[in-house]
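Fill-in record for Ribosomal RNA small subunit methyltransferase G.
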Amino acid sequence: MTDSFCRQMKKEVEELAIDLNDRQLEQFYTYYKMLIETNKVMNLTSITEEKEVVTKHFSDSLSLVRAFGGADEFKRYLEGEKTLIDVGTGAGFPGIPLKIAFPEMKVTLLDSLNKRVKFLQGVCDKLGLEYVKCIHGRAEDTGRKVEHRENYNLCVSRAVANLSTLSEYCMPFIKVDGLFISYKSGEIEAELEQAKKAIDMLGGTIVGLKKFILPGSDAARSLVIIKKSRILSKKYPRKAGIPAKEPLE
């Protein structure tokens, strides 16, 4: 592990009041090296420079604690074997950084591309991460399976899609009173307003919006916090491909 990587990780997670031990720092560095090496033969990320990976992938992923008021509050939320699913996880963001930092959490990583899922499984095996499931499937199909439907306390997604579409992907996975938290960049007020009706149709209520700037950058980020208030109608999610082509409105 390079000194620069270690210093930057410590500095940026300190802003989030997250404590990482030496093993966790090594896990992050190994993850970074595997990401860069695999990216040479598979399109995982356009962000490859060490400093940018730390800020725009690792720190951004860990910023989820802001939605709970801080790292200590997030730890308290996790008490009682809370479960998390990361929908459209891609190269493992935010799910794997969250699992490294909060190893007590049970995590499911869902992606529609099998070769990415194999990469994620390889990362979890190499890092010795326990209680992580890497699943290949589309959100629309997986969200109808009994072992996943309304089975998670928390759903997160950094996937690039409008909030209406993302909500239809993610709300089926969450238990009543559970949370869906969407990572967003830039200005989102108009998108948020457009998605309100769809979120209500899917049994959700917007209960919070946390805006922040990524450390060491001028990148604006937001966390949209949606609480599930009732059991979802069996007609959702619609068939694969429809939520993206015809978002609820």
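KEY FINDING: The first strand starts at residue 83 and ends at 87.
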